[in-house]
Design goal:
The protein has helices spanning about 1-70, 75-80, 95-125, 130-155, 175-210. By secondary structure, the protein is an all-alpha fold. It has one domain (about 40-210): Growth Hormone, Chain: A. The relative contact order is 0.18. Belongs to the CNTF family.
């Protein structure tokens, strides 16, 4: 009889342990799922802001190029068609999401010294009241903001992996007036191509790294519902 009673107590004890363990696992699963959902939401918000700004800048770049050409005088339609060295490559590289995001950020950073140089050149060529100068300043500020958002997007996905530093930017040697006009137009045109590539990559990255995972945790497969029954 004593052995039977001990067996009953042991069985009830094990059922209680199983119940407690099941509840703890359920709580842990719900907590991890909540954290994952929060991170996915943060990721989605971050990439959406970056995508929205990249599209806006792409549209603004069209108007900026028109304003630039209109302010350069004769032969302005030919300026953007001339080949120029030392202008950054607009193509995004990398296979993994981390590499692609890092490439986007690095390419954006590479253009900023060129924007500064174009602005300084145009300051010498234009009147102080020229709308081109204010448009260039505003566009550069928006582009820097995009780089900031891309940095945040990267850090939200890879908080322990620093963004790689880009290499030194090579600016063109001293130029005559015609070369300056050509250089500025090519810089803006190439950056417009970069923005198009950035928008395309961000759309792809959004579906790759920010989608919500809804599969069930495999730890709960096969767990008997009897583990949650009331002991008798």
């Amino acid at each position: 009889m004593n052995g039977h009673v001990k067996s009953m107590h042991f069985q009830r004890f094990m059922e209680a342990v199983t119940t407690l363990l099941s509840l703890l696992l359920v709580m842990a699963f719900d907590s991890s799922r909540t954290v994952a959902a929060s991170r996915n939401q943060q990721c989605g918000d971050s990439v959406q802001k970056s995508l929205k700004l990249s599209r806006l800048l792409q549209k603004e770049s069209v108007d900026l190029i028109k304003t630039y050409k209109a302010s350069q005088g004769e032969m302005s339609e030919l300026f953007c068609k001339v080949s120029v060295n030392n202008v950054p490559d607009p193509n995004i590289s990398g296979l993994e999401p981390s590499e692609k995001i890092a490439s986007i950020y690095t390419h954006l950073q590479e253009f900023f010294p060129h924007f500064k140089w174009v602005y300084e050149q145009q300051t010498d060529l234009q009147l102080p009241t020229s709308p081109l100068l204010s448009d260039l300043s505003r566009f550069t500020a928006g582009s820097r903001n995009l780089a900031y958002l891309i940095n945040n997007f990267y850090q939200s996905l890879f908080p322990n992996v620093p963004l790689p530093e880009g290499g030194p930017t090579t600016l063109p040697p001293p130029q005559n007036v015609f070369q300056q006009k050509v250089y500025g137009c090519v810089v803006l045109k190439t950056f417009k191509e970069l923005l198009s590539n950035v928008s395309r990559e961000l759309r792809s990255l959004k579906s790759q790294v920010c989608r919500t995972r809804t599969h069930t945790n495999t730890l709960f497969r096969g767990w008997p519902k009897a583990g949650l029954r009331k002991s008798v």
